[in-house]
Write a structure and sequence with these properties.
This protein is of the alpha/beta class. The protein is about 30% helix and about 20% strand. Helix 4 links the parallel strand 4 and strand 5. The chain is globular.
């Protein structure tokens, strides 16, 4: 297992819990607005952190930290993801998985093995625009839809979330998403934030007015939908 990043404390990434975040490399999407482009494009050139040091830190912080988020990249591509989740569970941690939903069999296996406690799945856009917004012309919508359907009927807590980018999203996307994930327990619209690590520079955040307009569209079908990361 290669871990390329370690956030030792987060109050945001695991809702309702203090946590840490582990960042794995590699991704099968190329979302142009991705904030972790180095982990996506050239993970083998990124530093690899010591597992012993990470686990030692987590052992010492048990009782202070409650959960560990496994993020990326796309964690479900890691062949030893199950072993990592098993280790974290054995240490008494809640485990959250961030995923793009492209590998539903992995998500199902982790849930059914009781190795994860929370799933956060990105909904990149409405279905029509998925190849563009995911940066993956050959994206398997069948796989993504299977993950959505699984989580909609899942016994563990989950959320869907969309990072909203001014140049990539329109009202049509949010009408489409609302119908697609109808009945979900949690859905968040997240504001895009530019940074030096973005895969393709040049995108912009939506205005507060735009975000609230999109939220109002979503709330017609998903009344409990919320904005996240909006000042």
């Amino acid at each position: 297992m290669k871990i390329h990043g370690f956030n030792k404390l987060t109050l945001l990434d695991y809702p309702g819990h203090t946590g840490a975040v582990l960042f794995l490399g590699h991704c099968n999407f190329r979302c142009p607005f991705c904030q972790n482009s180095a982990l996506v494009v050239a993970p083998d050139q990124e530093p690899v952190l010591s597992l012993d040091e990470i686990f030692s830190f987590l052992l010492k912080r048990r009782g202070i930290l409650e959960g560990v988020c496994i993020s990326g990249g796309e964690p479900t591509l890691a062949p030893d993801l199950k072993e990592l989740a098993t280790k974290l569970k054995s240490m008494g941690y809640l485990v959250k998985l961030d995923t793009n939903g492209s590998r539903p069999d992995v998500v199902k296996s982790l849930v059914e093995s009781h190795l994860i406690d929370y799933v956060a799945m990105d909904i990149k856009s409405g279905k029509k625009r998925y190849p563009v917004v995911s940066g993956c012309p050959s994206v398997s919508m069948e796989a993504v839809e299977e993950s959505v359907d699984f989580l909609l009927h899942c016994a563990i807590p989950y959320e869907f979330r969309t990072t909203v980018v001014q140049e990539l999203h329109t009202e049509e996307d949010f009408f489409s998403i609302s119908d697609w994930i109808l009945g979900c327990s949690q859905y968040f619209l997240q504001s895009y934030k530019d940074s030096h690590s973005v895969l393709l520079p040049g995108f912009h955040s939506c205005t507060s007015e735009e975000l609230h307009r999109y939220l109002s569209i979503v709330r017609q079908k998903i009344p409990h939908a919320q904005l996240r990361g909006v000042d």
